[in-house]
Amino acid sequence: MIGMNTSMMLLILLGVPAFAAVVLGFVGDRKFAPEINIAGSAATFVAGIGLALEVLERGSMLAGGKFFFVDAFNVYLSVLTAFVSMTTAIFSRRYMRREREHGRVGHVGMRFYHAMFQLFIFAMLLCLLTNNVGVLWIAMELATLSTVLLVSLYRTPTAIEAAWKYFILCGVGIAQALFGTVLLSFAAEKVIGEGGEALLWTNLSAVSGSLEPTVLSLAFVFLMVGYGTKVGLVPLHNWLPDAHSEGPTPISAVLSGLLLNIALYALVRCKVLVDGSTQSHHAGNIMMGFGILSIVVAAFSLLRQKDIKRMFSYSSIEHMGIATFAFGLGGPVATFGGLLHMLVHSLAKSAIFFTVGHASQMHKTQEMSRIRGLFKGNPLVGWGLMFGVMAIVGMPPFGIFTSEFLILTATMKDAPYLTPFLLLGLGVAFAALLRRVQPMVSGEIPPYQKPLKVANVPVLLHLALVLMLGVYMPDFLNNWFHAAVELLK
Amino acid sequence: MNLALAAQINSFLAALVLVTAFGMLVQKRVYGLIHLFAWQGFFLSLNTAIVGYVAGKHHLYISSVLTLSIKVFVLPYILHVLVNRLKIRRDVETVVNIPRTMLIGIALVIFSYHLTSPVRELSTLVTRSTLAVALATVMIGLLMMITRTHAVTQIIGFLALENGLFFAATSATYGMPLVVELGVALDVLIAAFIFGIFFFQIHAAFDSLNVDQMARLKEGE
Amino acid sequence: MNAHRIIIEFAQIAVVLALSPVFIGWVRMLKCWTQGRTTAGLFQPYRDISKLFAKEVVLAENASWIFRFTPYLVFAVTVLAGGIIPILSAHLPLSATADVIVLVALFAIARFFTALAGMDIGTAFGGMGSSREMTIASLAEPAMLMAIFTISLAAQSTSLSRIVQVIYTAGPVLKPSIAFAFIAFILISLAETGRIPVDNPATHLELTMIHEAMILEYSGRHLALIEWAGMMKTLLFMALGATLFFPWGIDATDTVSGASLAFVFLIIKLAGAGVVLVLIETGLAKMRLFRLTEFLGSAFLMATLGMLSFFILE
Lengths: 489, 221, 314
Description:
The structure holds 3 protein chains of 3 kinds. By secondary structure, chain A is mainly α. Chain A has a domain of 209 residues. In chain A, 64% of the residues are buried. By secondary structure, chain B is mainly α. Chain B has one domain. The longest helix of chain B is centred in the last third of the chain and has 29 residues. By secondary structure, chain C is mostly helical. Chain C has one domain. Chain C is built from 12 helices and no strands. The mean pLDDT of chain C is 89. Chains B and C meet through helix 1, helix 4 and helix 6 of B and helix 8 and helix 12 of C.
């Protein structure tokens, strides 16, 4: 009856956030709403761990009448998603309360914020766990829709503009992905036959060798544009810096740390199918192109930023570029690096956004030229930001160094002519970020800085994990990654 | 109804869908746009029902009814209410260079035709030829969103684009599995709810629904 | 058999010559009815023309040979066009010599010389009318050719007789390409024959007139010929539409009874076309000149869509 167990676990994993969303919709702006939010996320995280242990023990499996599918790849992302949502919920308790006190958010806004936060988590988990490529698309769209109004939560003209851009551009982008999905299902029906089974990922990957290559190449172009928009790959990235910088900081953290990963997950799944069908490296090459372009363009854009959240949004584009490039490159080393990169980037970036949120609340601005003296003003925020940035630019001994190193070695071996571009992007990003961050953390406390009680657990936890992944990789994680690498071959 | 006649009606409805798409591309009045959108939904729904009958796929009847209710009644009704509530019913948009837009539209149709040719060659379905029209509808919706500056118009473009996707699913594979169709319909409804809220927010913040004014987040400022 | 075809050919030209004023009279009558006015009768255009023939020709001092030559040319060309379009019979001897592109070119020649004559005198109105007419022509003719090509694609020939035969034998089928071409053809016909919403044939208001501005200086028999040619052109466009899109009833058997039946059908079709024309004219307002690009642009769009849907959907 272990199969039953898995189904139960899945039900809890998906049911808790959905249920919490409904509950929080009713609870509204009560005092204990943030605590319910945290409890819900924590329960989700526990369920995620439980599911992961199952998979660790028994390998990939189908559940819920072929509707769900769990393997090493998606279960690790599910745990990551649940974990970061939990820490973000902890962070947002104080943060949102303060925003509420400052009058930036009203009653309705708070109700909306909590309910949509949980709905967003539900949508992301559904994305990861569903076995149906069509449902994957629906969940992805749901994840977008649930965050659109959170981006415009502050109702300022810029926030509304950012949210509108997000809504329209992502809507258009993801529509292309649906067309790609239609083409995919067309190709699948030729092999699998009609009926609802043609869109199941397990079926598709089983027959990927006999799918019509021309149709799949065409489908991949649409899927690439569609999900690539959501990953924020250059030149489809226009919405990302706006959406990630104008919304409340907890939302920036989950958008940058989680949603981009989910979109990349969808893209990688599609790439596996397409490469299986065309028996070539066609899809991988496209991904490498988009990846390298994102790395270079985002790195140079970093130099020009004045808004702190905007700058880190560009950094997200850069890192998603690195991961996309790694998956495009393929091969065990690069894929391993890509998987690790998704994990450590997610942790480091959300930690950075937590500290950035605190810093901008202390200075009541997101302008970097006005944020000063963080070391002295609030050591946790200052050192948190400093270490976060050191991690994100790939300094040893943090985990990002490991993943970037792996990707770089694989590049030198398989595509040496691209190494200079990769190094250029990493170098420019390194210089740009450190140059900006250094004056913000050091120096004297400016007179307008207000002291602040901060949520220190999430930041410390994330940074500690990133550090740990740099110096020591637990065996179970190693095995997981190797299993995922096998799946993505 | 025999197969040949059904195929004829099918392609005729596809042509009508294309005409409404072009009509929306050049229609200046908000109400006119909403009506055209409703018509497009109606043709789609009829087309889906006929395909369902010919192919013997009964779940297509459900999608047909779903399309009819959402695309022909609910969404146009919501748009009507919003347009009335926001007092923009008399808004006339300045559409730049209609002939050029039309020519681009025609080019997009040709492009879609070429793009879908591998599918057409492989497919054995009655509806295979309409896939090009479906993709063209998607592209024209996209073009409409690019060329127009009014929030309502952009949304209608978006919904028209979604119509194109639905049409594509019907043409290429006799529709997606029911669970997917229902999910997509749900997403569209949620999107409708969201853009409704958006219209009010934009109206309150910018005092008009012209998204041209949204240029504060330009790079390098 | 050949003699029969030649007789039919001449009969058709006679029918076109004789019937065109009646058709215009019918359209004017319908218009009067819709507007609640008393009609001048079905044959008033005849009386107008014969009166003009009786009048003296007044020529401007600086009128060149072009001005004098144009009315005859326009009339002759229009009569020739009347001989090409298969109106009564599908097997016209003249129709075999010229295809649909020649037909468009014939109308273009007439228009070209009318525009030249408009400018010949050097008055402001003539030049203005010519420039407007050429603007419309530059938009209408590509659309016209597109529409006709669409049908030619379906029939795989540009010969009018051949097109008629193919459509005749195929029977009524629902083809998007033909439907698009038909809509485009209606729009173009309105522009080509100078009807509302493009031009108003009943006005001499200086700001809006197009065709009338070009022929403002004509008088006497010259004016009579041009007016008559204009009437024939209107009839020919209606007949062309009927022939291309609804050829049923046309004589395909080369018999006298067939031809007479075709004549009856022609009357019915023209009467119907007149009703449609009047409905359009009463339903629409005259467009501003600047909006004509949109109007003819949509005609072009329709024609192109017709051609595309021939490739895509058929």
